[in-house]
Design goal:
This protein is an alpha/beta fold. It has one domain: Thiamin diphosphate (ThDP)-binding fold, Pyr/PP domains (Rossmann fold). It is built from twelve helices and eight strands. The strands form two sheets. It has a six-stranded parallel β-sheet with strand order 2-1-3-4-8-7, sandwiched between helices. Strands 5-6 form a two-stranded antiparallel sheet. Helix 5 packs parallel to helix 6. The longest helix has 26 residues. The chain is globular and about 65 Å long. The chain starts with 9 loop residues before the first helix and ends with a helix. Bound molecules: thiamine diphosphate. The site of thiamine diphosphate (TPP) has 14 residues, from strand 3 and strand 5.
Length: about 350
């Protein structure tokens, strides 16, 4: 596993720490919402902050082929917060309000879709994004420039055919695609341990077998993560070829609310480790950690209060943004409604 660290200013480390806490506090607020009936289902990224924040910092953000295309999965909140989304918006999606800018209150939380930043809709069927990203990869190859396609997903999902398709399409000789292929490996697929379904080799080695530059890193250290992402991005931006980054991460609250969303003992917590480092290097003190947490706890409570005053989606908007126009579509009536008429 590669452990090269980047040399980073204190100010930058403080900024990364601040965003890691912002993401953790927000996710913990979302979990509490799911447990108290203020949302239906939670899935998110606690345990991936040390990788996801640096990723957000390094993305070339904007709309169209001159900017990075982002095909994310559902554990990416820290990346989006680092890119600049406000904390209140995922809280809106969790509470299914019409003001949710990603789905108008109609998708699960952390299912982002942001046109102005090329964030392609996060899907609940896993691994679909590895097939979709081939499209923007081909478009960016043709277009030229230095913008790239970035795709993220989990280890268990690499068993799906889309992952193999991505490796094949990205690595065709002479037609390689500028895709940064990221797999965050938490060693679980819901309740299935990786040891029962993976061949015992790294996922990165599948890329190597196809001539793709590949690396395994610890995603629990933001300095290691930053250096690895920077190196991988520089390669893909310049060479216009793929790079496979396997990132070892923790899954701190289990899979989702479906498995209880309770704290898991024994996993490395990247925030605890980073706080230890920041203290040892005299960059921040215990009081500073407390202040940052309090700042975001306050923001999360204020955001929730605001969201609870906001309206739910209007049933008449159910067919907005879908391919079928409502006027062409007969909505089937439930049998009890038909009986009542007769
Ligand atoms: C096509 C498909 N099959 C199965 C599922 C059910 N499912 C949801 S998440 C998940 C496990 C995903 O594990 P992994 O890819 O390792 O990502 P993680 O959630 O651990 O980050 C499964 C099997 C699904 N959503 N879509």
């Amino acid at each position: 596993m590669t452990k090269t660290k980047t040399k980073m200013s204190d100010a930058m480390q403080i900024e990364i720490y601040d965003l890691m806490i912002k993401a953790r506090v927000m996710e913990e607020r979302l979990i509490r919402m799911s447990k108290s009936g203020l949302g239906f289902f939670w899935i998110g990224g606690p345990g991936e902050e040390a990788f996801n924040v640096p990723l957000g910092f390094l993305i070339k953000k904007g709309e169209g082929l001159d900017y990075d295309f982002l095909h994310f999965h559902y554990r990416q909140s820290a990346t989006l917060l680092a890119m600049g989304i406000p904390m209140i918006d995922p809280i809106r999606q969790m509470h299914d309000t019409a003001t949710d800018p990603y789905s108008g209150g109609r998708n699960f939380v952390n299912h982002f879709a942001i046109k102005k930043w090329n964030v392609v809709n996060v899907t609940s069927p896993i691994e679909v994004q590895y097939a979709l990203c081939i499209g923007s990869g081909v478009a960016q190859k043709r277009h030229g420039g230095d913008a790239i396609t970035i795709v993220t997903g989990g280890d268990a999902g690499t068993a799906e055919g889309e992952f193999a398709s991505c490796l094949i399409w990205a690595s065709r000789k002479g037609r390689e695609l500028p895709i940064l292929i990221i797999v965050t490996n938490n060693k679980w697929g819901i309740s299935t341990p990786a040891s029962e379904v993976q061949p015992g080799t790294t996922i990165a080695s599948r890329g190597e077998a196809m001539g793709i530059k590949s690396k395994v890193i610890s995603g629990n250290d933001p300095l290691v993560s930053y250096a690895a992402i920077e190196e991988a991005m520089a390669y893909v931006r310049k060479e216009r070829k793929p790079y496979l980054l396997e990132v070892m991460v923790s899954r701190l609250y289990g899979h989702s609310s479906a498995s209880g969303a309770n704290w898991v003992n024994g996993e490395d917590d990247c925030i605890v480790t980073f706080e230890k480092h920041l203290k040892e290097k005299n960059i921040l003190k215990t009081e500073d950690f407390k202040k940052v947490r309090e700042k975001y706890e306050k923001e999360s409570v204020e955001s929730l209060k605001q969201v609870m005053t906001e309206a739910k989606p209007d049933p008449n908007s159910i067919f907005d943004h879908v391919f079928v126009d409502r006027k062409d579509c007969e909505i089937p009536k439930p049998h009890w409604m038909k009986q009542a008429k007769e």
